[in-house]
Design goal:
Acyl-CoA/acyl-ACP dehydrogenase; alpha+beta; Acyl-CoA_DH_CS; AcylCo_DH/oxidase_C; FAD; 47% helix; Acyl-CoA_Oxase/DH_mid-dom
Amino acid sequence: MDMQTPTDSHAEIREEVRKLCARFPGEYWRELDQRRGYPTEFVTALTEAGWLAALIPEEYGGSGLPLSAAAAILEEIHASGCNAAACHAQMYTMGTVLKHGSEEQKRKYLPKIATGELRLQAFGVTEPTSGTDTTALRTFAKREGDRFIVNGQKIWTSRAEHSDLMLLLARTTPRDQVKKKTEGLSTFLVDMKAALGKGLTIRPIRTMMNHNSCEVFFDNMEVPAENMVGQEGRGFRYILDGMNAERMLISAECIGDAKWFINKAVEYSKQRVLFGHPIGKNQGVQFPIAKAYAAMRAAEALLQQGLKKFEAGLPCGEEANMGKMLCADAAWMAAEACIQTHGGFGFAEEYDVERKYRECRLYQVAPISTNLVLSYIGEHVLGMPRSY
């Protein structure tokens, strides 16, 4: 079932990504899921094909593609039954360095990130006590000469065990000494390989899906002052700059998941015969799938609108936030329809439905929770009083 639009400007990219993903069928992902393994072969293939360097400008060794192309790449990965969560941060986390880093930092890191020689996949922001209240984080970086000494803790730092670099957000000025709570936060590039065992400790967190999430501890960890990205105290703004892009790329993954579930459900409903006819003939089976398809198309249209605004340099916070919520909802609706269509077989590992079902549930919560999206809409779109 072809769900692509005839005017898709990235049709060739999608086709090539589908070919690559065909080399990594359900058996590959099931085996990884069982042992909580990292998809090294898959990530290597994406890297060698240049897909993870899509957003890095050509002058730094990347492809210099627009955000819509990166969205097409991630969507197709998920629509093909694969999972980009193991490496998608390689595409957008570097944006902070690209936009706010020094020319020396760009020349030093971006070409190696483009080739995969360096993995910048870890994003150290969330903490156990502050969650999404980023300005309340406690990790502190104290300046001592030509270095910073970092102490604190991060949680849900995905891919920390498989990344060479971490983009770390830490407070450099105590919260009670700044005029605004968003001030006094700074961003750093942490060489995780050099710091591991020397002030840096990584502890994996076992979760319901194979997402390589970790808890990270900093105990007098040293970071060279030259590894600060941008100006001291402006890190919160730097992090915010990349959030719209991140949300739209995650939205694209959700659309891909929705398409995978819908295709899976449609095909099974045609093949599964009960009481003398395919179960897809029954409205009780057919209508939930059709409704999920309609929801997916509506969310996809909003996402495409957001991508166009982003590429035109226009404000796109409304589309990025609403799109993330609606795309995640569409994926979950499609997942529900798919598992219900399969009945008991939907819970069997060999069908891959239960694995994808677990994976797509994450995006109701991350990278921003639905409640915070609704708060954004209420305050910034509808002009209502701030709810938190």
